[in-house]
Specification:
Strand order of the largest sheet: 1-3-2-4-6-5
Distance between the termini: 42 Å
Structural class: alpha/beta
CATH architecture: 3-Layer(aba) Sandwich
Mean pLDDT: 96
CATH class: Alpha Beta
Shape: globular
Order of helices and strands: HHEEHHEHEHHEEHHH
Bound molecules: uracil
Length: about 210
């Protein structure tokens, strides 16, 4: 990132911090959740929206799903501080129950996505990984098929290769070797595309050969 881009990134962070475009979310949120990690990252993960933990802490993916994402990143031989992590929506979707979650509405996504678009433009990662159906549909709105069909296939966003995979929350709900392996294959493809080294041991994760 050039010093001009760094300034733009900080300006964007300030804008998002005080964003009031969705009054129903402003009233509900503790704070906006901008993103975290290395603004010069090669690999950028895009999730759906902050949950209760993220809203409280102001950081994406810090709850249960976030802890699994951190493990996935570490399995790739990286740390959270090596990659960049952001969401389609910067505010927690409002829900009736304090612990509940809901998917962002198309209107909310349309309003918020220019923020992410600008984040991606400034970070310019080599590879984007969309976590789950909402993330990939937010980035590629013309897609009709669900995440189970589109995962494992390359798409493009702003000319950047984009790999959709399962959301870690989905893996927590379906913790089979088969699901984990499919997700891992998507992450291996992302690592390869980003020019990251991959060991034999890493290639075999979640296969019979690894156990
Ligand atoms: N799920 C998401 O999609 N994003 C977060 O930040 C946390 C959970």
């Amino acid at each position: 990132m050039t010093s001009e881009e760094k300034k733009s990134f900080e300006k964007l962070r300030q804008e998002i911090l005080k964003c009031r475009k969705c009054p129903h979310l402003v009233d509900f949120r503790t704070q906006t959740v901008f993103g975290v990690g290395n603004p010069n990252a090669d690999i950028m993960f895009v999730g759906e929206a902050p949950g209760a933990d993220e809203d409280k802490q102001g950081e994406p993916f810090v709850g249960r799903a976030g802890q699994l994402l951190t493990k996935m990143i570490q399995a790739m031989g990286l740390e959270r501080s090596d990659v960049y992590i952001a969401n389609i929506l910067k505010c927690r979707p409002n829900v009736d129950t304090p612990s509940g979650n809901r998917k962002p509405t198309p209107d909310e996504m349309q309003t918020c996505i220019p923020h992410l678009q600008e984040q991606i433009r400034l970070i310019r990662p080599s590879v984007l990984v969309a976590l789950g159906d909402t993330a990939i549909k937010g980035l590629v709105p013309t897609l009709k098929e669900g995440i189970t069909k589109v995962r494992g296939h390359w798409y493009e966003y702003q000319g950047i290769p984009l790999m959709p995979t399962f959301h870690p929350a989905y893996i927590l709900r379906n913790p089979t070797m088969a699901t984990k392996r499919l997700c891992w294959e998507d992450l291996l493809a992302a690592m390869e595309k980003a020019g990251k080294p991959i060991s034999k041991k890493q290639r075999a994760f979640f296969t019979a050969a690894a156990s």
